């Protein structure tokens, strides 16, 4: 059995559809079903193996034989409406987390990605520290909620040559990467409300590098002649997109970086400067790949499904780069 912990979105459907077509048993759990709309029962007796059962609006299954699991873009728990006080809501959320995440730890399966590793790797300061240790080049960066520090950084890098961006950009709170303009300087006092990422602007060509186990799929996205070169996500339809191959030393650095983070899957963003230097920007442990696959034909969906199928057949975490979940749950 292959467990998919995610909600119903296009990447999840693409992979689970391929797995089911190949005859694999796949169970998808959306954490937003628990505890209001889903059930969990963990039975332990004096003898015999534990029985782990979950019930959702669409499934009622035992997870004892799960050997491979895919953790992707999980959603928060949903509580019963009767729980109206913060105290009751906090208690119910905590107790549900103890049961559900404890179950995930107990399953004898390999994770893509291990939840604790995935959670930690979403934090950019941690990514940058690991990237530096593994030899990747980073742009000059400042994270601060101190307006004067931000002003000093911009003075040194230059207006029009500094970008600012958010740590997280979700669909319901989208914030693109922006170049600092002269008119933005008057708003720098608002930095005190929350830390902001400031970076030197790196001219060049974007590379979305999708790492699946030991396989590396690279898409070049040239947005330099588009209406918004500061953030290729805004102008992907205008950019020139093609599959490319990274130099072997860069590929090796990225694989070492992924293993240092404990990630099996990740979408890495690089910029290649005009002089050929590769600059690391970030890795998204649950990054999208379909937009690249559709434009290049790179078989990323097939590789994600194949990795999960191999792990399901092995019944262990022996595939290169794969680690069993461990440590504290997010």
TrEMBL record:
<feature type="domain" description="ATP-grasp">
    <location>
        <begin position="128"/>
        <end position="309"/>
    </location>
</feature>
<keyword id="KW-0547">Nucleotide-binding</keyword>
<dbReference type="Pfam" id="PF21068">
    <property type="entry name" value="ATPgraspMvdD"/>
</dbReference>
<dbReference type="Pfam" id="PF08443">
    <property type="entry name" value="RimK"/>
</dbReference>
<protein>
    <recommendedName>
        <fullName>ATP-grasp domain-containing protein</fullName>
    </recommendedName>
</protein>
<dbReference type="InterPro" id="IPR048936">
    <property type="entry name" value="MvdD-like_ATPgrasp"/>
</dbReference>
<dbReference type="InterPro" id="IPR013651">
    <property type="entry name" value="ATP-grasp_RimK-type"/>
</dbReference>
<dbReference type="InterPro" id="IPR011761">
    <property type="entry name" value="ATP-grasp"/>
</dbReference>
<keyword id="KW-0067">ATP-binding</keyword>
